[in-house]
Amino acid sequence: MPEAAWPRADVVIGNPPFLGDRKMIRELGEEYTTLLRKTYEGRVPGGADLVCYWFDKARAQMAAGQLERAGLVTTNSIRGGANRRVLDAICAQMRIFEAWSNEPWVNDGAAVHVSLVAFGHAHQATCLDGVAVNTIAADLTPHADTQTSDLTRAQRLRTNANTSFIGTQKNGPFDIDHDTAADWLQLPNPHGRSNAEILRPWANGLSVVRRDEHTWVIDFDKMSENDASLFEIPFGHVKQYVKPTRDNLRRDWHRLHWWCHGDPRPALKASLEAITRQIITPRVAKHRVFAWFSSAVLPDSAVVSIARADDTTFGILHSRFHELWALRMGTSLEDRPRYTPTTCFETFPFPAGLTPADTAHQRTEALEGGALIPADLPDTLPLALPAEHSEQNKAPAPVHQAQAAITSIALRPAAMAIAQAARRLNTLRQAWLNPPEWTHTVPEVVPLGLSASPYPNRIVPKPGFEKELAKRTLTNLYNLRPAWLAAAHAQLDAAVAAAYGWADYTANMPDDEILRRLLALNLQRSTSEGA
Questions:
Q1: Beta sheet of 277-282, edge-to-edge order
Q2: Tens-digit pLDDT profile for residues 26-84
Q3: CA 206 to mean position of chain CA atoms
Q4: At the N or C end, where does the chain have fewer CB atoms within 10 A?
């Protein structure tokens, strides 16, 4: 496809179309989308939204001397993820001289938030959200001349790879209710295999932040049509209800493999095989919350699954430090923060000795009281001195001297403290979400031919408590943020700070200082990985 030619101009102003990367194929067609991405390969990443192509085209025009300045409207998701790479390129070659980072916008009745970005060769003072600043960074935040707080410099870390996964993309009505699943699990098949192989409980974002609706899903993974058809009743259901929704799709694989999920996420499923539970967080939510789910539960594409079973990892993720990092590194949908594996998880610098690479074996050790820590942790671990404490870049503030004074961490005790605080947080939350006085725990169905159920028990309301229990959600809990919840999080934060070696940490430590330290650790670790 030849790249569209723009005439020479002084200024380009526009409101390019908003279309997410996953909707591009559906709306524009697979052939056009493939050609577009091929044409801009190396300039616009494949996962970027359609609006990003206008930003890069304007940048290229400026680089060729064919354009002086541009002012474009975009969804605020351009501040992070794959989208932000076009702004990274812009900031490397010119400057963003004026921007509004997060403005409300009503489009066809839907309330969204947008960013307005003016960039190019201009002599006017730099202004962000109506306030004069030194520099506007690619994430549309104000940055001083120093780079010690510029989170756009953060790198993906190899030590965090192959751990967090977006859930399966169904691309069709594969879901069924609990009672239907329970009935089908008692049915025989002509090849003698159980429907338990292709029926699983299902979790989407609402399963985390609201109440679990006990939805199940049919999942043939990547079976052939002949193999899938031997699971007689579920296959017939998919043929009746899913196939018609796929018959006219433009995307060949989805149309021809109508009995399969659009993206069955084989790497996610393989990572869950060795553990009994997983950590799940919604991709888009008002509060950045994490929750435990059985590994028998199949995550939906609306959530991110972290394939670890230890409470230490859970506690690190649910700490103030990871929440701050995720809020700054992620994007948003309307006014709700968005969490992605690449930008929020894979860039996050876990405490030394407790990174996903350190826990990749997925084995756990149970402590007295039931908390789980990663197995085989050493008692102590030496700490490398961050690059910011070198002689040529020594930080003068006492806060950094206190941080630098610690040269080793009592790793196992630190992991234990995090795990115990995390388990306490989760136990208190569960007691609030599902008071035993209001709920029953019901054993899940045992499939035909099996001696025990492979599925987690269900929690159901006792008669008369349905309305009260419906209000007990994680969203409502974190909206209320009662004193006991704040105290449990404060205890967890203190334990995680100790694992970083931050002896000077208090709850009053500024967010910017925490982010500055995390960025230094990210850059130190990424440099050592590249060595």
A1: 164-166, 303-306, 277-282, 291-294
A2: 788 888 888 989 999 989 988 788 999 999 999 999 999 999 999 999 988 888 778 88
A3: 15
A4: C
Tokens 């388990």, residue located: 423
Strands (E), 385-426: 408-409
Instruction: Using DSSP, state whether 273 is helix, strand or coil.
Output: coil
Angle at 73 between CA 72 and CA 75, to 5 degrees: 135
Q: How many residues does the chain have?
A: 531
- Residue 476 identity (one-letter amino acid): N
Q: Which residues pair with 71 in a beta bridge?
A: 13, 118
Q: Which amino acid is at 98?
A: E
pLDDT digits (tens, 9 = 90+) for 468-487: 999 999 999 999 999 999 99
Helix (H, G, I), strand (E, B), or coil: what is residue 480? helix
CB-CB contact of 354 with 411 (8 Å): yes
C-alpha to C-alpha distance for 328 and 3, rounded to whole angstroms: 34
Cα separation, 128 vs 100, in Å, equals 6
Q: Is 189 exposed, middle or buried (0-12, 13-18, 19+ CB in 10 A)?
A: buried
> Residues 48, 50, 55, 56: is their CA dihedral positive or negative?
positive
In tens, the pLDDT along 74-102 reads: 988 888 778 888 998 999 899 999 999 88
pLDDT at 398: 38
Contact 414, 316 (CB under 8 A): no
Token pair 């159980």 is at which residue? 194
Q: Name the burial class of residue 265, with classes exposed (0-12), middle (13-18) and buried (19+) by CB atoms within 10 angstroms of its CB.
A: buried
In single-letter form, the type of residue at position 458 comes to R
User: Which tokens hold the place of 284?
Assistant: 């888009």
Beta strands in 207-314 (DSSP E): 216-218, 277-282, 291-294, 298-299, 303-306
**Tokens coding 354:** 């407790």
Is the pLDDT assigned to residue 403 strictly greater than 90? no
Query: Is pTM, for the whole model, over 0.85?
Result: no
Single out the residue of 382, 356, 365, 400 nearest to residue 517, CA to CA.
400
Least-confidence region, from 28-42, 135-149, 173-187, 412-426: 135-149
Residue 304 near residue 164 (C-beta atoms within 8 A): yes
